[in-house]
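> example.struct
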């Protein structure tokens, strides 16, 4: 089914910019170092219109009022840059060259050369739902390849139409269960970064997500105020899966949205082949 511009929602982009939440939204993006040009903001607006239309025929999101979507979905999704700062302005990241590449030959041993942190070029959004955080991130990070994965066909069909309609050629949408796709060689430990806004407990979520992350990569979980409690209960499970708890970043998105926490989990070794377990088992018997 194709999701066209909704006739019942006639607000133009110019009117959209007059929303009470729009100025605070773009101001926050600027504070975070996220360039918000006209093209990207227009795509965000067009995606909202598609979301509004799609929500009338299927259950995509309970948050659909335009001012609320700006903060609870869009700004929340883009807050990833607070946990992964190099995503904010990747073009501004210093490009270190080895002496040989600059024409200067120095007799330094190989191990003494500065270790460069690999760039984030592939991101997977596990359990993307209506496209959050993956879709807004893909709009603002056109140089990064995104995989949006969800188990429901209706949602993935909707997101494919959105990606095509918005001209986002950096998005691949896959309908699959995480426990199945994570055993596919083309996806297992193939991503620099994995993200998820899923509501599952962190120990369960980590079992589904960490197998996608390459060693040296990162998993960022979007969590609420109880994140510290969840993390404490999930550290043993994270360790079994090859991860290590990293930095936790807590902040308030504003407009009475409450506190948000981004949990960084670093992938320090390969996930054992036994994980993830079969469908339903992680929920029934969470790793301890």
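> example.seq
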């Amino acid at each position: 089914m194709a999701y066209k511009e909704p006739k019942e929602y006639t607000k133009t982009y110019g009117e959209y910019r007059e929303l009470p939440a729009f100025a605070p939204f773009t101001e926050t993006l600027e504070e975070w170092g996220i360039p918000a040009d006209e093209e990207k903001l227009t795509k965000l607006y067009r995606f909202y219109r598609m979301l509004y239309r799609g929500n009338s025929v299927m259950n995509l999101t309970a948050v659909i009022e335009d001012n609320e979507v700006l903060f609870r979905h869009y700004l929340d999704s883009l807050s990833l840059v607070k946990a992964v700062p190099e995503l904010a302005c990747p073009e501004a990241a210093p490009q270190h060259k080895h002496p040989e590449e600059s024409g200067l030959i120095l007799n330094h041993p190989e191990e003494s050369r500065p270790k460069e942190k690999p760039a984030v070029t592939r991101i997977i959004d596990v359990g993307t739902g209506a496209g959050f955080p993956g879709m807004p991130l893909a709009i603002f990070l056109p140089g990064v390849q995104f995989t949006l994965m969800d188990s429901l066909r209706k949602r993935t069909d909707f997101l494919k139409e959105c990606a095509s309609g918005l001209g986002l050629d950096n998005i691949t949408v896959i309908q699959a269960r995480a426990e199945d796709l994570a055993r596919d060689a083309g996806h297992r430990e193939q991503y620099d970064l994995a993200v998820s806004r899923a509501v599952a407990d962190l120990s369960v979520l980590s079992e589904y997500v960490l197998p996608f992350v390459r060693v040296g990569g990162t998993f960022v979980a979007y969590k609420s105020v109880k994140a510290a409690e969840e993390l404490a209960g999930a550290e043993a499970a994270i360790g079994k899966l090859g991860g290590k708890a990293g930095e936790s970043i807590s902040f308030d998105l504003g407009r009475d949205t409450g506190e948000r926490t981004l949990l960084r989990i670093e992938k320090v070794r390969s996930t054992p082949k036994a994980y993830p377990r079969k469908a339903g088992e992680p929920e029934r018997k969470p790793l301890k």
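> remarks
The beta strands are 122-126, 145-150, 171-175, 191-196, 213-223, 243-252, 259-267.
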